[in-house]
Each structure stands twice: as C-alpha cells, then as structure tokens.
Amino acid sequence: VDNIERAMDESIGHYLAAYFVPTVASTEVVDPYTVKITYKQPYALKRDDLATLFIIPKEAMADIATTPVGTGPFKFVSFAPGDRLELARFDDYYEEGLPYLDGVTVRVLPDAQARVANLQSGDVQMIEGLAESDVSTLQGNSDIQIVHTIEGGTWHTVVLNMRRTPLDNKLVRQALNYSLDRDKINQLAFFGLSPVTQSRYAPDNFWYYEPAATMYTFDLEKAKSLLAEAGVGDGFKTTISVSEAARPGSKALAQVWSQDLATIGVTLDIVEKEQNAFYDDYFNDDYDIQAYLLGDGLFDPATGINDSSPLRVENNRAGIDTQPFFDEYKKLVAEGVSTIGNDARKPIYDRIQEIWADESWAPIIAFSLLYVGLD
Fold first, then answer.
1. What is the side-by-side strand order in the sheet with 126-128?
2. Is 117 exposed, middle or buried (0-12, 13-18, 19+ CB in 10 A)?
3. Which long-range contacts (CB under 8 A, 24 or more apart) does 326-335 make?
4. Which of 106, 152, 224, 298 could form a disulfide with 264 if both were Cys (CB 3.0 to 4.6 A apart)?
5. Letter string b/e over residues 253-270, b meaning 16 or more CB atoms within 10 A of that residue's CB
6. What's residue 10's pLDDT?
7. What is d(CA 149, CA 158) in angstroms, rounded to the nearest whole number?
8. H helix runs in the chain, sequence order
9. How many CA atoms lie within 13 A of 86 on its CB side?
C-alpha cells in the first residue's frame, strides 16, 4: 500500500505515476498478506504495473536515493557517481543458500570500446548493451559468450515530426516508408544482426497482425508516385538526427536511406549530435526525422504505446495530435487498456497497427535485440 501510494505521488516524479494515478481509486490492507486495490475502471495492465513496482519499506523512502534499501539478495555498500556501485551478499536472504556470490560490482563505463576492452581483458565478467558492430567482432572469440533477447519488445525506427512540412502529409510519409530498404540497412548498419520487420511483433506472437506487418515493400517507383500525388514530385529537403552514442548504427542507417532517397529527388541531410543534444532536441521538437529506438522490452501492446514517445497519446513527440486520425487513435488506445481479455483486445490493437502502418509516422525497420557479452 505504501509503495502504491508513493507511485501515485506526482510531486516526486515517480516513474509509474502515469500508470497508477489515472487507474487506482484506493488501496486497503486486508491482512498481513493481502492487499485490496480498487480500480476506477476495468484495467488490463494491473499485473504489469505491479510487477514493475519495486517494493521498498516505508521507513526507507525518504532517503532511498542515497541509501537504497530493497528486498533482493544483495545489500548496498557504496555508490560513486560515474564510477561504480558496490553490493555485498545479504546473508538473511529468504532463499537459503542464495546468492552464490559474495558481492557484485557494477562499473560505469560510458565508452563502448572501453566496455569491450574490459570484457576481453577479464577485468569485467559481463557487459550489456553491445552494439551490433561489437557483437560481430566478439563472435569469433571463444572466451566470450554472446546472448540476446528474443525478437520483439524493442525495435529500430525513424520518427517523422508531423509538425513539419511536408512530413505532415500522409502520402509523403508513406513514400518515405516505401523508400526504406530494410534488408540493406540491416546488413550495412546493423551487421545483419537486427531481423527486418515492419511490425513490433514477430509472426508467432499473439499480437501480430499480418496486413499491417506486410503493408510496405522497398519500392522507389511507388515512393516517387506518392510524392507526385502529394504535390512534391520535384522532391524536397529534410534532415535526420543521429547519435552513435545513443543509437549505434544510426549514422549508417541514415547514409543508406539518403542514397536511395536521392534517386527520387529527396535530399536527406544527416545531422550528427552528441547524446544529450540528441535527446534534448527531440523532446523540444527540434528535429525533422529522428533515428530512434522504441519499445520497453515488454510484449503487451498497451505498454509499448504508453512507453513510446511517438506512439503515446499524452505528451506525444511526433505531433499526432495535429492529424485527422488522432481522435480515433486516442479512443482505441483508451479502449485497449480498459478492455479485459486478450481475445477481446486483439481487434482493437489490430486496428491500431493498421493506423501505425497507414499513417506511417514511425516506420519500423528491424527488431533491436539486446546483446550481452559474458566471459
């Protein structure tokens, strides 16, 4: 109860406030092992929210930022900002015999090459967030194991700012989608390690919807005809923001795309940005097109909308509120969250996927797999 109330405290900027505040009416302790939560309406993501609500004791809440207390197998020792986090074994952990390790050190290594070098030298035993270029380098090292997430949950995309002309024209956005050579981008930008897709779901996923997932092919003639129909047959100029620090491979993605766009009269200028400026400019609407990574690693379509800045209804960064489809889309998003039972929700999200594909403001290029290197 204390943790749910804390999640609903918007003054502290809790990361789950946008989920709990609109949905939870009240909480009540029934007995030491039972909590009753009353919701304002039917709400399909109850379990997802509770699963990501990290539990901390009430008496630790005031100082949690500097003196972490949780329920896990390790206890906090020290934290040096920008350097490392030290954890030690918690001897009173509820599962007898665990954890196996006496301690864990989490090192902060912002430079990707430094992370790889530390893994290769044995100074660290695990690194996460490997770029595809590093994966291709390390795969030949028999002392290192590469593992990755399954397809779905996160994906490479380009976000089109519909507050900018001519990106506010659906025909132009569709033309840009037809101009994406996803196979070539995967090979040249992501070393063949990002499975090509137009959908956030793999075909074996319950939420997969084939008509939306197969709407586009690489077709420059089709793209050119759509530009003519949109009144920009002579082409236009636009920019794409990229950051190798934030999104490895994004510059190569933009280079491949710009070459194909040039053949149909579209000039795509590549603007390289430092990581902070890349995000700051995006959230301040200072961009035309952004090479981006979307998804939260989860599979329920509602979380993927809520957690994706160009897809969500509130505080949307792609300008969907300026478009004719917005009212229907907003209604569908609300229905998807408030409808119980995935069979009943499926037609709602099929229609949402149709809108994503048809309106084409955040074309998906490939699945982004989270790669981890282990010694």
1. 126-128, 371-374, 145-148
2. middle
3. 328/355, 329/355, 333/302, 333/305
4. 224
5. bbbbbeebbeebebebeb
6. 82
7. 22
8. 2-7, 17-20, 46-51, 112-121, 132-138, 170-178, 182-189, 210-213, 220-229, 250-262, 275-283, 301-306, 326-338, 342-359
9. 4
Kindly list the averaged pLDDT for each block of 10 residues, start to end, along the chain of length 375. 92 84 94 96 89 90 88 92 94 94 94 90 92 88 92 93 98 98 97 94 95 97 98 97 92 98 98 95 97 88 88 93 97 94 97 98 96 94
340, burial (CB in 10 Å: exposed 0-12, middle 13-18, buried 19+): exposed
Query: Could you give the CA distance from residue 98 to residue 28 in angstroms, rounded to a whole number?
Result: 33
Residue 99 amino acid letter = P
Best CA proximity match to 319, nearest among 129, 168, 190 = 168
Indicate the pTM of the whole model: 0.86
Enumerate the β-bridge partners of residue 270.
Answer: 240
- Name the percent of the chain lying above pLDDT 90: 77
> What is residue 111's predicted lDDT score, i.e. its pLDDT?
83
Please give the biggest Cα pair distance in the chain.
Answer: 71
- Whole-angstrom CA distances from 163 to 28, 64, 228, 254, 317 are 45, 40, 21, 21, 10
Cα(191)–Cα(181) distance, rounded to whole angstroms? 14
pLDDT tens across 221-237, in order? Answer: 999 999 999 999 999 99
Between CA 77 and CA 152 the distance in angstroms is: 36
Q: Which phi-psi region, left, alpha or beta, contains residue 185 (left: φ > 0; alpha: ψ -120 to 50)?
A: alpha
- pLDDT, one tens digit per residue, over 188-245 is 999 999 999 999 999 999 999 999 999 999 999 999 999 999 999 999 999 999 999 8
Q: Alpha-carbon dihedral of residues 304, 310, 312, 317, nearest 10 degrees?
A: 150
